[in-house]
Amino acid sequence: MAEAEAHEGVFALMAEGGHEQLVLWSEPESGYRGIIAVHDTTLGPALGGTRFWNYDDERSAVVDALRLSRGMTYKAAIAGLPLGGGKSVIWGDKKAPNREPIFRAHGRAIESLGGRYITAEDVGTSPEDMLFVRAETEHVAGLPGRSGDPSPVTAYGVYRGIKACARVEYGSDELEGRHVAVQGLGHVGYYLCEDLAAEGARLTVTDIDAERVRRAVDDFGATAVEPDAIFDVEAHVFSPCALGASINDATIDRLKVDIVAGAANNQLGRSRADGQALHERGILYAPDYVINGGGLINVYGELQGWTLDQAKDKAADIYDTLLHIFELAKSEGLPTGDAADRVAEARLRAARQLQLTTP
After folding, report:
1. How far apart are CA 73 and CA 84, in angstroms?
2. N or C: where does the chain have the smaller number of CB atoms within 10 Å of the terminal CB?
């Protein structure tokens, strides 16, 4: 059943991030504990994937949903899509063997929002899981046989973003011979390595899964290092493609790169402070919600009936979007993350003003 119980401090957390809505839904008989965060629907219905994760506690799950949903608002705004930002998390064991009752319960929770929120796959979930959600609601994308796995489009957008970074940093976007250190070899990380290797980039890779590392070494001639050692690799680009907060107080000073550009969400442990630290070190940072927007583009493309090539063409625009942000950052003397926020917030303000003036 739906739960309306208050979580201590939850309204303060929502106010701090400017969130519109937070839904908690529990069905103990199926093992479902779901949290849906709707950040902003100014530009359109909130779209964002479902993450299945065994959080340490309830507050951690809520904070993650709120933080991720806010990022989706900015991601949609910066990509020029008519969508708002949302995210959902399922708190539990992502390896649960009987997934259908859990995801059907999640579908019922989503249906209760009446179209304000649309979901898709994310960390710990799959297109097949979305079929169970679809049994309860039409407000779901990322289904098998449609756009399915968004990883190839996400990776392609990151690849195009790295090329934009190289153009700014080196005067040419050619990546042949450039050294890229990739952290995380899940679907997106693997496809990114494929795109980079195809252009002749040199790869150093790591992952907590040894089989993923072996595959990248075999397929792309990559050099493998232990997970913690990736921060000490001397390279042109560090590409974080695992979970968030890998750029933090403990790692920034270890980086020996010119560029940070990867697919992970919430890469900065403390967004403004760590963005400023990268800026002061002269490391060009591609804001995460800009460079990894290909996944959102892919899901939106499914809703619009786009082909894979059409989705990749739209993801290629990340190149020009980043160039615009880098130019703004340079002219205003800002960290690139702050410049990206300004662009996204300007688009949201313009949309709100239009709503106020439209009869």
Report:
1. 5
2. C
Count of beta carbons in the 10 Å neighbourhood of residue 37: 30
Residue 180 has pLDDT above 70, yes or no: yes
Residues 84-128: pLDDT tens digits? 999 999 999 988 889 999 999 999 999 999 999 999 998 899 989
All residues at 6 or more sequence positions from 177 whose CB lies less than 8 Å from its CB, including other chains: 200, 201, 202
Q: Are residues 294 and 178 in the same domain?
A: yes
Is the overall model pTM greater than 0.85, yes or no?
yes
Boundaries of domain holding 111:
2-71+84-134
The rounded distance, in Å, linking the Cα atoms of 11 and 153 is 36
Asked if residue 354 belongs to a domain, the reply is: no
- Alpha carbons 255 and 236: distance in angstroms, whole number: 10
In single-letter form, the type of residue at position 102 comes to I
Inter-residue contact 260 to 241 (CB < 8 Å): no
Same-domain check for residues 240 and 212? yes
Tell me the catalytic residues: 87
Distance CA 45, CA 33 (A): 23
Counting the structural domains of the chain, the total is 2
CATH number (domain holding residue 246): 3.40.50.720
